[in-house]
Amino acid sequence: MDKRWRDIGVLAGALFAVNVVARLVNHFGFDGDDAAADRVSLGMFGVIGLILAVLAFVWGRRRPLGDWAADIGGAVVVAMLLTVLVGPLLVGDSPFAGGAGTFFAQIWFYLGATLVGSLIGYLVATALGLDHRSQSLKRFAELKTTKPRRVVRR
After folding, report:
1. Is residue 45 part of a domain?
2. Which residue from 78, 85, 117, 132 could staple onto 52, CB 3.0 to 4.6 Å apart?
3. Per-residue burial over 42-75, b = 16 or more CB atoms within 10 Å of its CB, e = otherwise
């Protein structure tokens, strides 16, 4: 159980670290250039989606969907709260400096990137037949075909 919580915490920390790096690059490298800041933010969402796609693919091979989806969901919620509420404070802004529209847009973009990334990773694993359920069904089918049929006398 400790390993599971540690995995969730490490994932949330990694997702938050990606956001911190993007915010620092925006703050020190592109201060005032909105087009470059938008590209860095878009890249950040792409990296977050890619991390979750790879993780969903790897965890989807080893564990049932319900187990790893709950872990990823918990880590995403924690990382999103840190990103939206604590992230702006690191570069000297307020979480609500851009107004309510910007605040909620960050939440929707973050949830969208994480959902799309996780879904792509799991769908690739499923399409290749490498997910946990497909492997379980494959083992079951192999077991049933290798076992000889019992003859019943009457």
Report:
1. yes
2. 117
3. eebbebbbebbbebbbebbbeeeeeebbebbebb
CA distance 115 to 113: 6
Cα 89 to the center of its chain, rounded Å: 24
Full-model pTM: 0.83
Residue 90 lies in a domain: yes
**DSSP of 64-126:** -HHHHHHHHHHHHHHHHHIIIIIHHHHTT--TTTT-HHHHHHHHHHHHHHHHHHHHHHHHHHH
What domain range is 25 assigned to? Answer: 3-146
Of the listed ranges 46-50, 87-91, 115-119, 144-148, the one predicted with least confidence: 144-148
DSSP 30: S
How is residue 153 written in tokens?
Answer: 């006398």
Query: Exposed, middle or buried, 14 (CB in 10 Å: 0-12/13-18/19+)?
Result: middle
Give me the sign of the Cα torsion angle 125, 127, 128, 133.
positive
Within a domain: residue 152? no
pLDDT in tens, 117-153: 999 999 999 999 888 888 888 888 887 777 677 777 7
